[in-house]
Specification:
The chain is of the alpha/beta class and 408 residues long. It is built from 15 helices and 15 strands. The strands form 4 sheets. It has a 7-stranded mixed beta sheet, sandwiched between helices. A 4-stranded antiparallel beta sheet has the order 11-12-15-14, with helices on one face. The structure holds pyridoxal-5'-phosphate (PLP). The site of pyridoxal-5'-phosphate (PLP) has 15 residues, from helix 4.
C-alpha cells in the first residue's frame, strides 16, 4: 500500500508538538510520555482484535497478543503488589464504569466525594451516566481544614448504607487515608473502590500510601503521574478477578486496545526503576515549593498546602475567577485548569479556583529552584491580567526559559 501522507494533519501534529514544548504545562492531569511509549502506541498492534483475556480469546491469531497482555498484567501486579489486574480499560472513566458494573446493580447506593470538593465526574456527577444508573450520595471536606472529615464520611455511611464507597479524587492535595475508608466500608458491609487516577505514580513509588491492602477494587490511569500512555487499569483481589474481567468485556467495552496495552507494559516496567522513584520525589518536592512560594505571595491554597503533585488556589480574594485566571495564564504560555473550590458557589464553567500540578514540568527536569521562577511567572501573569502586551512578552520569556528543559 502506498504510504499516504496527509500534509494537513502532519502540520497540525507538528504545531501541537511545538505547543507542548514551548508552553509551561501545569495541568495536573497531564505529563509527557517517553518516546518509546509513544512509538508502541503507534505500532501494528493497533490492527489486532483480541476480545477476551489471555488464553481465553474470542479471536484467532492471539498467541503473541496473549504474551504482551500477560506481560502488562504481570508487571502491573508487581508494581502495585496486588493479586489481580485487568489492564484493558480504555481510560480512567471506563475503569470506574467497569468497577461499578462488577460490584453494583442499577439503583444501588454509592457514597463518593463531592465534585466541588475534588471528586471526579465519573463519581456520580449529575451529567455523568453513573448518576442515572446508581443513587449517589456525597461526602465533602471539613469547611475549616478543607480536608476529608472521616467522621462525617462514617456518619453518612451509617445513614445511607451505600453498597459501595469511593475514595479518590481529581483535585485533592492531601494524603487520603485508605485504611480509614476501609474500616468505614467494612462496618456497613460495603465495597470499597479507591480511584488512584491522579496519584498512581506516587502510589507506585510508595510516596503515597497504597490502597491495595485495604480496597476491594482499585482503578487508575496511566497518563497522569504514572507518565504512561493514555489508558486505565483495574486492580482487585483474586476473588473478584472474574467479575472485573467480565464487567470490562463484555460489560462495558469490546476489543482491547492492544497498542495501548503494550505501551502500558513498558510504563509499568519503567515505574519499577529507581529513576522513576526519584522523579516522583522531585515531583512532590516541586509541587510543595510552588505552593509555598505562591502562598508567600498572598495566594490562598485550599487546605493550606499540598502532600502530593497538585494543589488548588482559591482566587476569590484576588477578585479573579478560575476561568479568567486560566485564560490569562494561557496568554502568558502557562497552562493550568480552572477548578472548583470546596463549597463552590460559581458555575463549573467559571469556578473560583485554579488547579496547578508539577507532573509535566518535573518530567522536563525542572527542580525546586526553577519552581520559584515559575511561581513568579504565575504571579506576574495574574497581576497583568488586562495587559495583553505584557502577557505576550511574558510568553516569550516562558518559552525561552523552557528551552533549558527539553522534552524527550
Ligand atoms: C482523571 C480521572 C479519571 C478519568 O480518567 P480519564 O482517563 O480521563 O477517563 C477518573 N478518576 C479520577 C479521580 C480522575 O482524576
Amino acid at each position: 500500500m502506498d504510504t499516504f501522507y496527509d500534509h494537513q494533519l502532519a502540520q497540525l501534529i507538528e504545531q501541537e508538538e511545538h505547543r507542548q514544548y514551548t508552553t509551561l504545562n501545569l495541568i495536573a492531569s497531564e505529563n509527557y510520555a517517553p518516546a518509546a511509549i509513544r512509538a508502541i502506541s503507534g505500532s501494528v498492534l493497533t490492527n489486532k482484535y483480541a476480545e477476551g483475556t489471555p488464553g481465553k480469546r474470542f479471536y484467532s491469531g492471539c498467541r503473541i497478543i496473549d504474551e504482551i497482555e500477560t506481560l502488562a498484567i504481570t508487571r502491573c501486579k508487581k508494581l502495585f503488589e496486588c493479586e489481580y489486574a485487568n489492564v484493558q480499560a480504555h481510560s480512567g472513566a471506563q475503569a470506574n464504569m467497569a468497577a461499578y458494573c462488577a460490584f453494583l446493580k442499577p439503583g444501588d447506593t454509592v457514597l463518593s466525594m463531592d465534585f466541588s470538593a475534588g471528586g471526579h465526574i465519573s463519581h456520580g456527577y449529575s451529567a455523568n451516566l453513573s448518576s442515572q444508573l446508581y443513587k449517589f450520595t456525597f461526602y465533602t471536606v471539613d469547611p475549616e481544614t478543607e480536608r476529608i472529615d472521616y467522621q462525617k464520611v462514617d456518619s453518612l455511611a451509617q445513614q445511607h448504607r451505600p453498597k459501595l464507597i469511593i475514595a479518590g479524587a481529581s483535585s485533592y492535595s492531601r494524603i487520603i487515608d485508605f485504611e480509614k475508608f476501609s474500616a468505614i466500608a467494612r462496618s456497613i458491609n460495603a465495597f470499597l473502590l479507591t480511584d488512584i487516577a491522579h496519584i498512581a505514580g506516587l502510589v507506585a513509588a510508595k510516596i503515597h500510601p497504597s490502597p491495595v491492602p485495604f480496597a476491594d477494587c482499585v482503578t487508575g490511569t496511566l497518563h497522569k503521574t504514572l507518565r504512561g500512555p493514555r489508558g486505565g487499569f483495574i486492580l482487585c483481589k483474586e476473588a473478584y478477578g472474574h467479575l472485573v474481567d467480565r464487567a470490562t468485556m463484555p460489560g462495558i467495552q469490546g476489543g482491547p486496545l492492544m497498542q495501548q496495552i503494550a505501551a502500558k507494559a513498558l510504563c509499568f516496567e519503567l515505574a519499577l526503576h529507581d529513576e522513576f522513584k526519584k522523579y516522583q520525589q522531585q515531583l512532590v518536592s516541586n509541587t510543595a515549593t510552588l505552593a509555598c512560594e505562591l502562598q508567600s505571595r498572598g495566594y490562598r491554597i485550599v487546605s493550606g498546602g499540598t502532600d502530593n503533585h497538585l494543589f488548588v488556589i482559591d482566587l476569590t480574594e484576588k477578585g479573579i475567577t478560575g476561568v479568567e485566571a486560566e485564560r490569562t495564564l494561557e496568554k502568558a504560555g502557562i497552562l493550568a485548569t480552572r477548578s472548583s473550590i470546596p463549597f463552590e458557589t460559581k458555575r463549573p464553567m467559571i469556578c473560583s479556583g485554579i488547579r496547578l500540578g508539577a507532573a509535566a514540568v518535573s518530567t522536563r527536569g525542572v527542580g525546586d529552584a526553577e519552581m520559584l521562577i515559575i511561581a513568579n511567572y504565575i504571579d506576574e501573569a495574574l497581576k497583568k491580567k488586562s495587559d495583553d502586551t505584557s502577557l505576550a512578552l511574558l510568553k516569550d520569556e516562558v518559552a525561552a526559559f523552557l528551552e533549558q528543559f527539553p522534552v524527550e
